[in-house]
Amino acid sequence: MFKFKKSLLKISCLSFVVATSCSTKDRHDVTSGEKIVNLDQFEVVDMSHSGKLITDNPDILGIVSAIEVIDDSLVAICQNSANAHVILYNLTSDSSQIAMTRGEGPNEMLRVSSMSSTADGDLCLVGMMDKKVMKVRWQDNESRASVVPLFRLPEDFLRGVANSKGGVIGLPTGLHNFRLYETDSDGTLIDSMGNYPNVKMPEGVCPNNFMFQSDIGISPDANMIVIACKSWNYIDVVYPKTKQSICLNMPVDEPIELNKYEIGQAVSYNPKPFWLMFSNVDISDKSFFVGYLGVKVESPEDLNKNMTSVLEFDLNGNPTRRLEFGNELVAFSVSKNGDKLYTVENAPDPTLYEYTLN
């Protein structure tokens, strides 16, 4: 058992420099700075009762794991409760179509772990259990979708987003140093982007990425990445050629113990007390958004809690708004220009809402 103090949420902003070779390497050419912010520096905005109800159709909104805004008219919905794994909802025509089904076929996935928009307007899907990466492309003036298999990853990614090279950036599940990797367009690992979150662990402790399950978002121009840890009080922001650390005072005001568990040859390190910190990340041309829970897990029921607010930062990492929704949020996604925010909320049944962001 290891003990160490964690009283601040640290948001580390690290360099993102394009790799020029096919060898795996660390990136070190950065400048650095630091700022400390508090939750009360966010302007609290009550969003409850201001959203436009889009649909509460249970066939579309089963057990939703993620949504992604494609453009002004299309929202992709990933659900884990039916054979229709990825559904496209047309906001203009109020209609939907199945983009991909669950399965082992060439155009199917066993489980989609991440969805992200690409620079050319496609939807990138990263899979777990089968290591597949696919794109959903539009035909017939966006009235029909087709799935295009791209490549298989060397190993499963917990989360992954499309990069500007036709590959993905993500967190492999099996690595025992919680590293972030980038691939090229055929799935070859071309670069290591360092440790995320940037947590100093006790000597001899080498946790894998499962300990720091995270959500990842990438900016529309693919120059900025935000990584929010689900169970640790860290957010990492990857900028071009800058390194900035932002510490946000949090309610983590007691020592955290790292307990070592050994099951056969597997080793796991679990923090106690355990916190639910963040869920969901998205970036627009104007700002980035991180779903916030801040829940100390004291009972099994706490593990089922969802976010009720979203923290907004400007692109320099400064706090701007804390959006409060009243209902629990299952997932959210922001439009590219930052004018619209879409949520799936338990109200009490899963419901898709559209909000206007002024």
Descriptive report:
Mean pLDDT is 80; it is low at 1-8 and 12-32. The chain has no helices and 29 strands. It has strands spanning 2-4, 8-15, 34-38, 43-46, 52-55, 64-69, 74-79, 84-90, 95-101, 111-117, 123-128, 132-139, 144-152, 157-162, 168-172, 179-183, 189-195, 214-218, 225-229, 234-239, 244-249, 256-263, 266-272, 274-283, 287-297, 307-314, 319-334, 340-346, 350-356. The N and C termini lie far apart (48 Å). It is mostly beta strands and 358 residues long.
Question: Layout of helices and strands, plus pairs?
Answer:
Blueprint lengths: L1 E3 L3 E8 L18 E5 L4 E4 L5 E4 L8 E6 L4 E6 L4 E7 L4 E7 L9 E7 L5 E6 L3 E8 L4 E9 L4 E6 L5 E5 L6 E5 L5 E7 L18 E5 L6 E5 L4 E6 L4 E6 L6 E8 L2 E7 L1 E10 L3 E11 L9 E8 L4 E16 L5 E7 L3 E7 L2
Parallel strand pairs: 2-20, 3-21, 4-27
Antiparallel strand pairs: 1-22, 2-21, 5-29, 6-7, 7-8, 8-9, 10-11, 11-12, 12-13, 14-15, 15-16, 16-17, 18-19, 19-20, 22-23, 24-25, 25-26, 26-27, 27-28, 28-29
Distance between the termini: 48 Å
Return residue spans where pLDDT drops below 50 for at least 5 consecutive residues: 1-8, 12-32
Shape verdict: globular
Q: What fraction strand?
A: over 45%
What is the helix tally?
Answer: 0
Q: Find the count of extended strands (DSSP E, 2+ residues).
A: 29
The structural class is mainly beta
> Radius of gyration from the CA trace?
20 Å
Query: Could you report the average pLDDT, rounded to the nearest whole number?
Result: 80
Q: Write down the secondary-structure element order.
A: EEEEEEEEEEEEEEEEEEEEEEEEEEEEE
Q: Give the helix proportion (percent range).
A: under 10%
Main sheet attributes: strand count, strand direction, barrel closure: 8 strands, mixed
